[in-house]
Structure formats: structure tokens, C-alpha cells
Amino acid sequence: MVDSSSAQVEARPAVVRSQLPSLTGMRFLAAICVFSFHALCTTVFAEKTWQMMPVPGTVASYFWEGNWASVSFFFLLSGFVLTWSMRPGDSTSKFWRRRIFKIWPNHLLTFVAAALLFGGVFKMAFNGWNALLNVTLLHSFFPQLEIWTSYNSVSWSLSNEALFYLLFPFLIRYIGRIRPERLWAWAGVVVAAIFLVPLVATLLPGAGGPYQPWTQSAHLEFWFTSKFPPVRLLEFVLGIIAARIVITGRKVPLGLGGSVALAVFAYVVAPHLPLTYPQAAATVVPLTLIIANAAIADVNNKPSWTGSRVMVWLGEVSFAFYMCHLLILVFGSQLLTGGKSYGTPAAIGIIAVLFLASLAVAAAMFHLVENPIMRRFASSRRRTSHSPAPVPAESGTSAPALAGAATTSAAPENSATH
What is the pTM of this model? Predict the structure, then answer.
């Protein structure tokens, strides 16, 4: 990780909106956590210690937490980087256009692959209603397991991201008006709301159903806390506020080293917390601090291994990696093992092969689908007459008010989540 001894951006307005290579590399680390979780779900491992299904083993329970922390990291990162990389004179329609051409091509490609594979290999019937909700990224709004896990089930997180993108131009209008000295107070309000979510989930009509070991909670509470887009919007909003805290030069209470230490502590403690607290609330504060401090370190040109050329490339392909990895794990393990389980050494070897296969397919998707489509269609070749999205004024800071924004390599185009 970045070694950041500074908790505040140096007063250099010219570099305040620099690229964020460290955060780009961190995206792939989060993607690995999600891959590892899903790898255990394939039950390639014979030892119960490693098995995720039907009941998480001793070690496997911490892979659950890695998956949940990664979910939260990406939702926080989305709000942070969208705010960081705002373009001067941008319009709402241009913003939505870029987001559509970023996420839908890979989504549609993997949807078709999932429909063909599940139909051809497992003889699963095509469900038109579930398919419609999935393609239109509305499926996470429904608590039924067969809907939000339909087809390429990892796409549930894109349903959340689609809501975030839809609302961002409007959210930034109001969050951008918060005075800098009040940003931390507002961050505290959002964190408090996140901590209330598990309690609210227990009050839902129909809550308190049978405990499901594989979700470590009752189903309705699990869906509401971890899948329901309006609830996960809280983390996105916290990311927006965190970006403004950094942009306006507010002091961050911990450096990156302290933030990582706090995250490790939260990670270890989280699986032992009650209700659905491990899913977001347990790690949301340290993850927010890590993102803020990594951005500060990048602004101040501090070296980091997560910002290396290789890690940046891996971060750039992480969206495609996320979108294809579960299909490769499910059908690749079926092809290689025939549904059998193996001892730890052999299982690790099989997972390594599937990891490399996922990375190869992701690279192809990124260079042959994602990038070409973005270059060709993400920006209109005609001038539009739409009014620009409001650019909030930053008061009380020497940094330019969300101006001169550079397109960041850490743009949150992926959501590597379960």
C-alpha cells in the first residue's frame, strides 16, 4: 500500500485533480477478494475449513468478509472518483452516456454468455421476466433470490451502480453546497445511517425468517442490507463527501498506515458481529479513510506499489475480470473437475488455472470490447445544447472549485462484488 505520512493535501492547486493510480491498483486487490470468495463457493476444496457451502468453514468465513468489504470499497470508490473526475462544462446527458457505454456492453456480453451456458450445460429454462429485469439492471430492487441472482449473478452490483449514476448529477448539486468545515459532520451523519441499516432490516414486514448459513442471516435482511440499491446508495454518498473532504483540503484524522491498521482490525472483528453488521457497517469507516489517504498520497506524488504500471493495468481490466470470473469459475470448474472436490494443493492449482483464464478473458474483453466501444461511442461527435451539470463551488479553500478535472485512471467503472 501507499506509505502516507501526510493526512492533508499539499496546497498545490495545479495537481489537486491528478490521476489516482494507487486507487486503480487497489481495485484489482478488491477484485481478487471477490474471486477468492466465489472460488470457495465452487466447492472445489474437499476440506471443510475452506468450504463456503452449505456452511462457511473456519477460514472461509473470513473470505465472506473480504467479499463484503470489497463491495463496500467499490461503492465508496464510485462516489469518490466520480466527484474527483468531474469535467468542467460537462452535462448530465454526457455523463449518463459515458456510464451507459462503460457498463452495458460487458454486462450484455456476459448476460448472453450466462444464458447460453446455463441453458446448454445445466438445461436451465430461459425466464423472460428475470432476463428483462437483469438486462435493464433492475433486478437488485427485488428481494426474490431467483431474480437478483439471475443469469450472471454478479451483475446485481451493476443494478446498484446504475442507480448511483442516475442520481449523481443531482446529488452533487446538493452535496457540493456543503461548506467544507461541515463535511466531516455530514460524513458522520451518513455513517450513522449506515449503522442503522441492520436494525431497520429487522423491522421490515416479513423479516426474521429462517437463518440461512450461506448468507449468515435471514434472507430478507440479507437482501435489504447488501443488495437493495437505495440502501447501498449511502456508501456512494459517503464516497462523494470523502472526495470533497480531500478536494477542499480538510484534515483526515488518520494517515494511510493507521487507516489500514483500522481496516485490518475491523476485518478480523466483523465476522463476529451480530445481525448484518459485517456486510457494510463494520468496515465502512476504515475503507473511506483508506480511499481518502490513497488519493492524498497520489496528489502528493508519493510512490506506491499499487500505483505501479502492472497494478494500474490490472485495475483497468478489473471490471471485465469481475464480469466474467464467476461464469469461468462455475463452468470451468465443472469442465476440469466434473463436480468433484479435491485436497487443498490440487484445489489451489485448479483455482489458479481458473484465475489465469479469467484474467485472459478479462484482458480480451477490455481491449476488444470495453475500450473500443468507449472510444467510439462514449462521447458524442456533435455539439449538444444541453445545459451543463452544475459544478458546485468550493468555499474556504485555495484549490480550484471542481475545475480543471483530469480524467482519472481510477474511475469506478467496475464493481467487483458478489
Answer: 0.87
Mean pLDDT taken over the chain: 86
For residue 417, give the DSSP letter. -
User: Where in the chain are the domains?
Assistant: 13-30+54-105+127-314
Region 24-40: what's the mean pLDDT? 95
Specify the 3-state DSSP secondary structure of 297.
Answer: helix
Residue 68 · residue 226 · CB < 8 Å: yes
What pLDDT is recorded for position 407?
Answer: 33
**Judging by DSSP bridges, how do beta strands 217-218 and 211-212 pair with one another?**
antiparallel
Q: Which residues contact 176 (CB under 8 A, 6 or more apart)?
A: 244, 390, 391, 392, 393, 394, 402
How would residue 418 be classed by pLDDT, with cut points 50, 70 and 90?
Answer: very low
What is the grid cell recorded at 196?
A: 442503522
Contacts of 303 (CB under 8 A, 6+ apart): 2
Dist CA 24 CA 21 (whole Å): 5
How many residues appear in the chain?
A: 418
* E strand or H helix at 212: strand 211-212
**Mean pLDDT lowest among 269-273, 312-316, 339-343, 383-387:** 383-387
* Dist. CA 418–CA 38, nearest whole Å: 8
Q: How far is CA 158 from its chain centroid? A: 9
Among the ranges given (15-19, 162-166, 238-242, 340-344), the one the predictor scored with the smallest mean pLDDT:
15-19
- 391, 89, 25, 191 alpha-carbon torsion, rounded to 10°: 20
C-alpha cell of residue 33: 477478494
Please give the residue that has the higher pLDDT: either 188 or 275.
188
- Give the number of other Cβ atoms within 10 Å of residue 1's Cβ: 18
CB environment 236-264: b (16+ within 10 A), e (fewer)? bbbbbbbbbbbbbbbebebbbebbbebbe
